[in-house]
Design a protein that fits this description.
mainly alpha, about 95% helix
């Protein structure tokens, strides 16, 4: 009778630990499900930001070269200047979104 009680207690303890492990795993899976799209978007934004920064640096360099104005049509100068302004706006928007994503990721914490 005492052995049966001990066996039953051990079984209950095992079941409780199994339930706790399963609950932790469910929480972890939910955390990953919420975290993955945020990470994916942040990584895509980082790549886009990097490409836009490179384009803007090239345009800034081009627009800073006096020879560009002498050798290019007014339309080419206007187009380069307009694109440089567009890139500045796009970069600001992308960086703000990236910061929002980082805040959301931080708020998720650990599982």
């Amino acid at each position: 009778e005492r052995e049966e009680l001990e066996d039953q207690t051990l079984l209950q303890a095992r079941e409780q630990r199994r339930g706790e492990r399963e609950a932790r795993e469910r929480r972890r899976q939910e955390w990953l499900r919420r975290r993955r799209p945020l990470l994916r978007e942040a990584q895509e934004l980082e790549a886009r930001i990097s490409a836009m920064e490179q384009q803007k640096r090239e345009l800034d360099q081009q627009l800073g070269d006096a020879g560009f104005y002498a050798d290019s049509s007014p339309e080419a100068v206007r187009s380069a200047s307009q694109r440089c302004g567009e890139l500045a706006n796009l970069l600001t928007e992308a960086e703000e979104r990236w910061l929002e994503l980082q805040e959301q990721l931080e708020a998720l914490g650990e599982p």
